Amino acid sequence: MAEFSVIVPAYHERANIRPLTTRLFAAVDEPKDTELIFVDDNSRDGSVEEVEQLKAEGYNVDIIVRTKERGLSSAVIRGFTDAHGKYLVCMDADLQHPPERVPAFFHALKSNAFVLGTRYSPEVSMDKDWPLIRRVISAGARMLARPLTTVSDPMSGFFGIQKDYVVKAKNVNAQGFKIALDLLVKAEIPSSMIAEVPFSFGVRTVGESKLTGKVMVYYLDQLKELYVYKFGAVTCVLVLLVLAALAVIALWYLASLVL
Ligand SMILES: Nc1nc2c(ncn2[C@@H]2O[C@H](COP(=O)(O)OP(=O)(O)O[C@H]3O[C@H](CO)[C@@H](O)[C@H](O)[C@@H]3O)[C@@H](O)[C@H]2O)c(=O)[nH]1
Ligand SMILES: [Mg+2]
């Protein structure tokens, strides 16, 4: 039974499956003790056949095909549930998360409950081709998550967690796009048990991003739920009322200067 599991949510990613698998197994320290699980939402694009071929070549890779559910977070939860490993790493299929960094996650997971891949470290650079609009959205989204966690990249989808802590996390939001943030808040992991691994965020070369306007709405909804979870509904309403009052006072003051 594998001790290390790599979970990859995948939707229409056939062309990325082979390079990810070969690069991952070439990189890990203990390939015989490592399993790779794709969680595909019935893409029907040849992903299953590609995985079968890789299996026949001897790679410890599998694919779960979901036909009734869809969504990034719920796919990751399904993969974590089915995984055999004690140490779990989640990464994207599109090679924006370099497989060569996975051993650093497993290494850090031996002494930490949670390991977050970060794009915001002096050691790494963000790919200069990452579109400006994505950088702006990412910065805004990060700022909004600031009160929830101290980690440097709460939007990251490249992370590792010990299986025991997945079991501990209750009511994880399967709708959201930001599963790492949800687990960080709901598994109640102390900051002393969280490590960060810097990585350079690449550019997708094959296939398309699934980030749509709807995903951003889901994110705001997820944030609302996490704020209430962490601070309680009463505190959230009071803070909103104070902010609204401050905004009215500021507008009043500005109007008095102009008029
Ligand atoms: N099974 C399944 N997989 C999905 C779904 N939606 C997306 N995925 C998979 O989830 C991964 C990330 O999707 P992308 O569409 O490539 O996301 P992105 O916009 O590049 O977003 C990335 O950057 C964010 C930070 O800015 C990360 O938070 C996010 O996890 C992801 O890494 C890919 O492997 C994609 O196939 C879905 O509905 N179902
Ligand atoms: Mg991507």
TrEMBL record:
What GO biological process terms are annotated to this protein in UniProt? Answer: dolichol-linked oligosaccharide biosynthetic process; GPI anchor biosynthetic process; protein O-linked glycosylation via mannose
Q: Mind listing the GO molecular function terms for this protein?
A: dolichyl-phosphate beta-D-mannosyltransferase activity; metal ion binding
Q: Where in the cell is it found?
A: Endomembrane system; Endoplasmic reticulum
InterPro entries per the UniProt record, alphabetical: DPM1-like (IPR039528), Glyco_trans_2-like (IPR001173), Nucleotide-diphossugar_trans (IPR029044)
The pathway entry for this protein reads as:
Protein modification; protein glycosylation
A single Gene Ontology CC annotation of this entry is: endoplasmic reticulum membrane
Query: Keywords of this protein's UniProt record, alphabetized?
Result: Endoplasmic reticulum, Glycosyltransferase, Magnesium, Manganese, Membrane, Metal-binding, Transferase, Transmembrane, Transmembrane helix
Relate the protein's function as given in its record.
Transfers mannose from GDP-mannose to dolichol monophosphate to form dolichol phosphate mannose (Dol-P-Man) which is the mannosyl donor in pathways leading to N-glycosylation, glycosyl phosphatidylinositol membrane anchoring, and O-mannosylation of proteins.
- Quaternary structure and partners: Component of the dolichol-phosphate mannose (DPM) synthase complex.
Could you tell me what this protein is called?
Dolichol-phosphate mannosyltransferase subunit 1
| Protein species of origin | Lipomyces tetrasporus
